[in-house]
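Team,

Forwarding the record for the chain on the shared tracking sheet. I've put the sequence and predicted structure together so nobody has to dig through attachments.
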Amino acid sequence: MRLETLQRRMMAAIGGGPRFVEERLYVGGLEAALRGFAVHANTISHARLVALEETFSRTRALLGEARFNALSRAFVETREATAQPHSGIGRHFAAYLEEAGEALAAPLARFEWLWLEAYHAAEAQPLALAEFAALDEATVLATSLARHPATRIAPGEAATALAEEIPSLEGASAILITRPVAEVAINPADEAMSSLLALLEKPRPIGNLLASRGEQGSEAALAALIALIEAGAVIRAGKENGEC
């Protein structure tokens, strides 16, 4: 039997349970195979629980040990969790907490997952305000920007739980997560900043960004764009690929 076929059948047994176990494939027959898979399943389950504890330490503290353990043990058995690789085990944890009625913990878990995404995101050179110093207005407005690959926006509901740790987040409508160099940075964000970042899912010229808020809102849009640039949240379009 080809190695690829054997691996595929073993993965089917791991994922699907006893009815997918082919007795003839394992030394000792079905009983021995099931004992081995049980040990493997316990090992995988434990690793997933540890990964959740490490990823969502603040959420764990907020919920308390007993409640967090109960929720995480139930979550790791869901299809959303088992479909993910080990590194992505917590991707849907915030949504699971929301469905479980944890209105305070869910936004905090969302923040912690986005923080982890920012930490592991691709590197890119953030745009600096100094780059515009020698440019005329037309050139500045035509400059196309994009979202830095590490930039994330977390829900403002998490700010309450984080305000003691990060006082600047008190009352923030959203939380800006960036990683302009090596360290992840956390800053408050307002509605205008969130709106511009949503537009920057695709590259856009600065003039287009400012016009998106209308004539009366252009001043607020400019202030929001400056705040995003200072936080390291945007790049020149193409810069993530090393283009000029």
